[in-house]
């Protein structure tokens, strides 16, 4: 039966089985969590698992930052359209009046946090009203909304995350091209001021310590 909720709320409604159970969490979604959120989620999941249960966890592996930058700023504009669609969702669900043409997509690699950060940068000063919240947001030119994070894992960091959160004995299962990994383990909208950031193609680039070869 389909469930609606975030990952934490959803765990409370998972069916319990007497038999040994395989929990599968693929797609690199764990990289969309902050470290604390990932620990909380995996700890909660581990608490549901019986000793004989197993977890198959997918993670996106760390790659050359230039390749990551090209993927998240693709020439076809697929990722940009995906990111800008968030504003359409807010307009529909919160009766907001975002003008998607007044924002620009940008994604950059943050090496200190080993993650891609996706932003929507305001192209001009503007005011946006969220009707259902009776709230107004003012944007400066270049001010950016952090819309998504996507962590990129090296295996030791992923194994350490599992050790910290409960599942023990992680074993890596690497793809042939070594771009994605899975780990098999037994059971036991921010806003950022980018006014001082560098600009690229008219978009704010709020990531710090960017590798020069990425730009």
Concise overview:
With 215 residues, the protein is an alpha+beta fold. The protein has helices at 7-11, 35-48, 65-72, 78-94, 155-165, and strands at residues 22-25, 54-60, 103-110, 115-122, 126-130, 135-139, 144-151, 171-174, 180-186, 191-192, 198-200, 203-205.
Pick out its properties.
215 residues, alpha+beta, four-stranded mixed sheet, four-stranded antiparallel sheet, globular
Written account of the structure:
It is a single chain. It is built from 5 helices and 12 strands. The model is unreliable at 187-205 and 208-215 (pLDDT under 50). Strand 1 (22-25), helix 2 and strand 2 (54-60) form a beta-alpha-beta unit. The protein is α+β, with helices and mostly antiparallel strands and 215 residues long. Helices cover 26% and strands 30% of the residues.
Quickly give the structural class: alpha+beta
Whole-angstrom Rg? 20 Å
Element string (H = helix, E = strand): HEHEHHEEEEEHEEEEE
Shape: globular
Mean pLDDT: 79
Give the spatial strand order of the biggest sheet: 1-2-9-8
Distance between the first and last residues' Cα = 46 Å
Task: Extract low-pLDDT stretches.
Answer: 187-205, 208-215
* Main sheet specs: 4 strands, mixed
Number of E-type strands: 12
Please bin the fraction of helical residues.
Answer: 25-40%
What is the count of DSSP helices, taking H or I runs of 4+ residues? 5
Strand content: 25-35%
């Amino acid at each position: 039966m389909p469930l609606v909720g975030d990952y934490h709320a959803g765990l409370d409604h998972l069916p319990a089985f007497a038999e040994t159970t395989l929990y599968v969490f693929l797609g690199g979604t764990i990289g969309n969590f902050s470290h604390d959120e990932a620990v909380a989620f995996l700890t909660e999941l581990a608490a549901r698992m019986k000793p004989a249960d197993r977890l198959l966890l997918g993670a996106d592996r760390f790659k050359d930052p230039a390749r990551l930058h090209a993927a998240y700023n693709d020439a076809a504009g697929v990722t940009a359209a995906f990111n800008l669609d968030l504003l359409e969702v807010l307009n529909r669900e919160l009766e907001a009046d975002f003008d998607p043409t007044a924002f620009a997509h940008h994604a950059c690699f943050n090496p200190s946090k080993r993650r891609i950060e996706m932003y929507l940068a305001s192209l001009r000063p503007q005011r946006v009203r969220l009707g259902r919240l009776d709230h107004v947001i003012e944007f400066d030119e270049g001010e950016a909304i952090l819309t998504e994070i996507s962590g990129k894992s090296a295996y030791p960091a992923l194994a350490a995350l599992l050790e910290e959160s409960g599942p023990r004995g992680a074993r890596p299962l690497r793809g042939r091209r070594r771009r994605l990994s899975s780990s098999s383990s037994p059971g036991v909208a921010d806003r950022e001021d980018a006014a001082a950031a560098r600009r690229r193609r008219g978009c704010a680039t709020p990531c710090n310590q960017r590798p020069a070869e990425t730009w």
